[in-house]
Design a protein that fits this description.
With 328 residues, the chain is of the alpha/beta class. It is built from twelve helices and ten strands. The protein starts with a helix and ends with a strand.
Length: 328
């Protein structure tokens, strides 16, 4: 197995595209061979991304009452959860949070709203106005995650100054009907294609630990590769009471790390960002995400849960002797 891992990594560095069959074989790596897999993923990360790491932050700008029924989501109106529910927050709150994110070392700041998608009208105008202010008042790159979008809306947000559109696929196409039945996977795919066509960077990944098989994780990575997204956020399910997946088990830290490493080998030049569920799934092994091939992580609070204080995250990167990417 060790020779196989090294050969696959050498092939990837030589420009080969890792096929699903080889990725499945890598998913069988166990024991001390895992450390070699992590080391090779780390070598590939360093080759494409250097010794730097990026931080991003988000604001939950509009929370709850979502008509979609994503099985994991605390914000779905299909679930009875204890989260805060509120309409689109004031422009000043969004801009102030962008300033805090910048001070905390983030290079990208995401304005996230619950719901199927933001329609043209008052809310969209306010978000565009806020994006313009963030561009004027900070050096951080504004990103939006507003649900299913069409090309014209993507273009409008780009003209306002938005750099990146974020929209997760959530999971593999073949597993999606077990997770969400209120919209179609292709609606998400079309959103990503529209954002790319509008000339935006696209940040698109999913959530691991929803009950999908390893083969389905690999299937999702293949779809992300086909869509040629720029950044791949990897979330690990942190079950919320009241959701359909409230009784789901956490992934083991080693399974999370193995999944990250395989994503790095499948998507060698992409920005792989570890986001929600880091603390609860990785626990003491959080710093290993970079050894397994991650190139960035979310810092600060998540959508409905609190994260670690950003100082701790920055110290972790310093201890790993990684240089923090800074705003241009
Ligand atoms: S993941 Fe997004 S679309 Fe799905 S229920 Fe939650 S807020 Fe709605």
């Amino acid at each position: 197995m060790r020779q196989f891992i090294q050969k696959v990594a050498d092939d990837v560095l030589g420009g080969a595209v890792l096929d699903a069959g080889t990725a499945i074989r890598l998913s069988e790596v166990s024991g001390s061979d895992l450390y070699l897999l992590f080391a090779e993923a780390s070598r590939i990360r360093e080759y494409f991304k250097g010794k730097t790491a990026s931080l991003c932050s988000i604001i939950n700008a509009k929370s709850g009452r979502c008509p979609e029924n994503c099985a994991f989501c605390a914000q779905s109106s299909a679930h009875a959860t204890n989260i805060a529910v509120y309409p689109l927050v004031d422009d000043d709150v969004i801009v102030d949070c962008a300033k805090s994110a910048e001070l905390n070392g983030a290079v990208c700041y995401g304005i996230v709203t619950s719901g199927t998608g933001i329609q043209p009208g008052e809310e969209l105008e306010r978000i565009c106005r806020t994006v313009r202010r963030i561009r004027q008042e900070t050096a951080i790159e504004p990103s939006c995650s507003l649900g299913i979008m069409d090309y014209d809306t993507c273009l409008k947000l780009k003209e306002a100054g938005m750099v990146t559109y974020h929209h997760n696929l959530e999971t593999a196409r073949s597993f999606f009907p077990s997770i969400c039945t209120s919209h179609d996977y292709e609606d998400d795919v079309r959103t990503i294609q529209a954002a790319k066509r509008a000339g935006l960077n696209v940040c698109c990944g999913g959530i691991l630990g929803l009950g999908e098989s390893f083969a389905q994780r690999i299937e999702m990575a293949e779809t992300l590769r086909e869509l040629d997204v720029d950044s791949v956020p990897m979330n690990f399910l942190d079950p919320v009471e009241g959701t359909k997946l409230s009784d789901a088990c956490f992934l083991t830290p080693m399974e999370c790390l193995k999944t990250i490493a395989i994503f790095r080998l499948m998507l060698p030049a992409k920005n792989i960002i570890v986001c929600g569920g880091r603390e609860t799934n990785l626990r003491e092994l959080q710093s290993w995400i970079f050894l397994a091939g991650t190139s960035g992580m979310m810092t600060g609070n998540y959508l409905t849960k609190t994260g670690r204080v950003p100082e701790v995250d920055r110290q972790m990167l310093a201890d790993l002797e990684l240089t923090l990417e800074v705003c241009a």
